[in-house]
Amino acid sequence: MIQPAPARGHVVIASDKFKGSLTAVEVADHVSAGLRAVIPTLPIRTVPIADGGEGTLRAALSAGFRRVDVTAAGPTGEPVQAAVAVKDRTVVVELAQASGLHLLPDGRPDALNASSYGTGQLIRAALDAGCSRIVLGLGGSACTDGGAGLVQALGGALLDSSGTELPRGGAALARLHTIDLTSLDPRLRQVKVVMASDVDNPLLGPLGAAAVYGPQKGATAADVEVLDAALAHWAEATAAVVGDEHARRPGAGAAGGVGFAAMAFLGVQPSAGIEVLMDLLGFRQELAGARLVITGEGSLDAQSLHGKAPVGVAGAAGTQGVPVVAVAGRTELSVEQLRGAGIRAAYSLTDIESDPARCVRDAGALLEQRTAAIAADWLIDPPSATGPHPGNHADDLERFPSDA
After folding, report:
1. How many Å apart are CA 243 and CA 238, to the nearest integer?
2. CA 96, CA 141: separation in Å to the nearest integer?
3. Helix/strand/coil for 16
4. How far does CA 302 lie from the centroid of its chain?
5. Under 8 Å between Cβ of 68 and 83
6. What is the distance of C-alpha 358 from the center of its chain?
7. Contact 166, 173 (CB under 8 A)
8. Domains, the chain, ranges and CATH?
9. Closest CA to 292 of 11, 28, 6
10. Which residue ranges are recorded for the region named Disordered (predicted)?
11. pLDDT per residue over 50-83, tens digit each?
């Protein structure tokens, strides 16, 4: 029997969710189990991570935030049970809690009419909780309304030429005539809102909210044209009121344009979601004395290199000289790309199971097997300067659920 070497420091587990199979908290539990199956006394600290999208609320709750339940309007108006996370005077609002794709009744998309109204209601709940800082996590939205619903929920009036309030949804913005902010919640002036997103798209055009993300929300080619034109009208009307042009700013297209409304009406400066969340969840504090960081997400691919959680975690750990390895459902990045991102090795479920359906169904058990390999490679015998060869197999590119 191999005798584990004496512990020389703790291991930090800081992974995002495996979309479609495991939450970030569940990933941390299975990784811990796999490590301790090999080294029972290994000191482990877990920091479940998110980048602003789905899972942000869970990550905050795991870090000691308190859950406050809120009844809000879902993306197509039906009431949904959502929540915000509160700690001291900071409140975490996850857009997907009220305006997420997964909340569409029977999964039926409604690209033209889905709204961010419920997210505005969550912000109101944050204000009711007496916050001084709101962390607004954007991702997984069902709407392409430029954040108009959010503004309406916060008291802004969006009127057509007859003075009638517009119905919710992006398509209705084509009829916008007047933006009246007289009744916009005055408490917004007393709080700082921080936007956490991994998207840098502008609001409009071929790289904008409608063109890039609309089809994921059920928009046809014709719908995309309708929505992009309506959003352009919304942006023009907004600029006339707030005196600034936000539509071209990176991140304005986040969450169907909710990023745009957050910038224009809430004074938000966009931030990399993973950077905001790492600070909020106390990840950097756990690096002191660590011997290894294990990060990951469902799919390590080209999108991971653009603001996703594993690369953010690796960058922060690298500044402290702590080596980082990753776990994933699948890995599409080359050894060079992984190393360039600061990840020494990647251990994927597809390394040991070629059936993607089983990777999803049995993700926990398979993850424990891969994590046992990490323990053997990195925590028993001292690894070389570059570590073991990453467990990245170019042939294992079957489709594991993407975290996009």
Report:
1. 8
2. 6
3. coil
4. 16
5. yes
6. 25
7. yes
8. 10-49+287-380 (3.40.50.10350), 56-274 (3.90.1510.10)
9. 11
10. 380-404
11. 878 888 999 999 999 999 999 999 999 999 999 9
